[in-house]
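fyi for ur records
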Amino acid sequence: MSDANSTTGAVSVDVHLERVRSGLDRLAAEDAHAAAGAGDALLVDIRYAALRDRDGLIPGALVVERNELEWRLDPLGSHRAAEATGHDLRVVVVCNEGYASSLAAESLHRLGLRRATDLVGGFQAWRAAGLPVTGPAEHLTAAPDGG
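which gave:
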């Protein structure tokens, strides 16, 4: 089975993911932790609630459901989170294992957030690296009203 269809231009999700990732400066867990700690990056957790409840959260990460990500992080949007301060913001998107986050970061690029990237291996890599994790009640959540 081929990864690309020459007549339609269609590609497999694996090929698409590889192309997307080639345009990202993806971060390893330790590098994301250091960037966030230095105030040089905003970690954004897009995992769904069941995973956050099961595994915990990255302290200080902004929780934004994937289906709201573009609206919450668009610095020009009326529904933006307070943390969406400008197009030069370095956003590190975190999903569970580092797949959906790559696609989400690419979508943020299309909104002009050129420093958006993702965490290689996602939350599971963060946890495996022994980096801080808290329970679900100790996190920041983007308020639905944009504040």
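The two ends are 48 Å apart (CA to CA). thats all i got for now
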